[in-house]
Amino acid sequence: MYPVRSLLCTAALVLAAAGQPAVAGDPPAVGSPAPDFRLQDQHGKWHTLAEQKGKWVVLYFYPKDNTPGCTTQACEFRDNIFAFRDAGAVILGISVDDVKSHEAFAKEHSLPFTILADSTKETARRYGVLYRAMGVMEVARRDTFIIDPQGRIARHFEKVDPKGHSQFVLGELKALKAAAKG
User: Is 113 in contact with 92 (CB distance < 8 Å)?
Assistant: First the structure.
């Protein structure tokens, strides 16, 4: 079973999803420029969104490393990585956990994509996904953004169900690419 810490975090996240107040503003609107960021990945390397210009980006926010829903979501993206690569998309995961936590999470689940540490919570705030759980713990809401090659928000999915989400996003990505080709 899951360690006590994970169960407590999961309980906090359930409460957050049940309507706890956001601590961030509204998310960027579809069609608007995606907010840039500069964050470290699970290996300590720095990344910006601007570096991805010209590529489709699946940017998914998740609450906490090694919790059941977050693990399900990350592993489904992992299991579909070749389909996303074939579709010409880059997957970037973001939570407010630190680099060390991300390193362990990525290693334990063999994640073949970048997960970024937003320990200052500024990126989650700028994307409008920062929530306060149990009145004290700030986490990112489980939201996904598809960003087009010009750096604009093409789709935004709020409060997603981690089970099956990767396959759903892949379908939406393919539809967006087909529509862009005309």
Answer: yes
Quote the CA–CA distance of 177 and 81 in Å, as a whole number.
17
Q: Is the Cβ–Cβ distance between 39 and 123 less than 8 Å?
A: yes
CATH number at 151 reads: 3.40.30.10
Query: What token pair was written down for 145?
Result: 């953004």
Q: Which residue has the tokens 């010409």?
A: 88
DSSP letter string, 44-70: S-EEESGGGTTSEEEEEE-S-TTSHHH
Q: For the chain, 182 residues long, give each residue's pLDDT as a single digit of tens.
A: 444 444 444 444 444 444 444 566 899 999 999 999 999 999 999 999 999 999 999 999 999 998 888 989 999 999 999 999 999 999 999 999 999 999 999 999 999 999 999 999 999 999 999 988 777 889 999 999 999 999 999 999 999 999 999 999 999 999 999 998 87
Active site residues: 70
Which domain covers residue 41, as residue numbers? 4-181
Quote the tokens at residue 18: 């049940």
- Split into its structural domains, the chain has a count of 1
DSSP string for residues in 2-43 = --HHHHHHHHHHHHHHTTPPBSS-PPPPTTSBPPP-EEEETT
